[in-house]
Design a protein that fits this description.
Order of helices and strands: EEHEEEEEEEEHEEEEEEEEEEEE
Structural class: mainly beta
Helix content: under 10%
CATH class of the largest domain: Mainly Beta
Strand content: over 45%
Number of domains: 2
CATH topology of the largest domain: Jelly Rolls
Number of helices: 2
Number of strands: 22
Shape: elongated
Radius of gyration: 22 Å
């Protein structure tokens, strides 16, 4: 149970998010101020009404609907194999090859049940190009299908995906690409983001040799990643973990752990600290491109250190 003195006037604190690898080494650490104005007011109101606040959970906006995990080729059209040695998460990733000057189009328009994609969302996917110079990035397309129709889709070229996601593909390197759905400017047969049902990759090779691409973990990320605009609630798509609480004098520490497979997607963005009555006590967020990226077999620890000041 996390308790505060009744004469507390102002809370302050720091949130620390740490990604730890299986061997115990630290992969990433991010720290941020935890309190927006709304968050501080919510805590102040709780303090005014009683002497005890119990932190019950930490919620993370860590992804939305998973379009596909690329662990099985069942249902897909086109030639791909599941590579269990080169992948980002799960059991494997699709390995797709296109002959010189050729195209290999791998897709399934019904990989997920029909789902509505919230306005302002982004699509996040992991891609790995073995030799970038062999890929015709301006012709290759990532496609998202609508209403179970393989002829109805939104698309974005890999060249435009680099720009929209703010990344640059490098040889034999996994690149996590997060692009706003508004960046998908190619369309066919009047698709709708309200009936998203599948995904595909059309890989086009240049003349230099066989192009090889790997694709893994495609999912929708809630678009509201800004602390100020998310001040009254963690975005609707979230994962929740119960907290453990400790107290030393006026410093209260509340923390939660996520394993690699306990949260949707690859990236954590906005965190909210909640009491047992689902009241938001504090929130912290990270801007576009500054998320916390999971690694294979990693653990995410999110810890609030709250200091009360009389």
């Amino acid at each position: 149970m996390t308790s505060f003195d009744t004469n507390v006037l102002k809370p302050s604190g720091v949130v620390t998010a740490t990604v730890t690898r299986a061997d115990g080494s630290i992969a990433q650490v991010l720290k941020s101020n935890t309190f927006t104005l709304v968050g501080a007011e919510r805590i102040a109101a709780a303090i005014a009404s009683g002497s005890v606040i119990t932190a019950g959970s930490i919620k993370s906006s860590s992804g939305g609907v998973r379009l596909y995990d690329f662990d099985s080729t069942t249902g897909f059209t086109g030639t791909a194999v599941v590579d269990s040695s080169v992948y980002r998460q799960g059991l494997g990733a699709f390995k797709i090859e296109a002959a010189p000057s050729g195209t290999q189009y791998v897709y399934d328009a019904t990989t997920v049940s029909s789902t509505a994609v919230p306005s302002g969302s982004s699509l996040e996917v992991s891609l790995r190009l073995t030799t970038v110079s062999r890929v015709n990035k301006s012709a290759s397309q990532l496609r998202v299908f609508s209403a179970g129709n393989s002829s109805s889709y939104y698309g974005i070229t890999l060249a435009d995906l680099e720009t929209a996601a703010g990344v640059v593909f490098a040889d034999a390197t996994w690149t996590v690409c997060r692009a706003p759905i508004t960046a998908f400017t190619i369309s066919a047969s009047a698709p709708s983001w309200s009936t998203t049902t599948g995904i595909g990759l059309s890989l086009v090779a240049g003349t230099a040799g066989t192009a090889t691409a790997y694709i893994d973990n495609a999912f929708i990320v809630n678009g509201n990643l800004d602390t100020s605009s998310a001040a009254t609630a963690v975005p609707a798509v979230y994962d929740s973990q119960s907290t453990t609480n400790t107290r030393a004098t006026r410093v209260v520490t509340t923390s939660a752990l996520w394993g690699i497979n306990q949260a949707v997607g690859e990236t954590f963005y906005v965190f909210g600290l909640y009491d047992t009555s689902s009241n938001l006590l504090a929130i912290t967020g990270y801007g576009a491109g500054a998320g916390i990226y999971k690694e294979i077999n990693s653990v995410l620890n999110v810890s609030w250190s709250l200091t009360t000041t009389a």
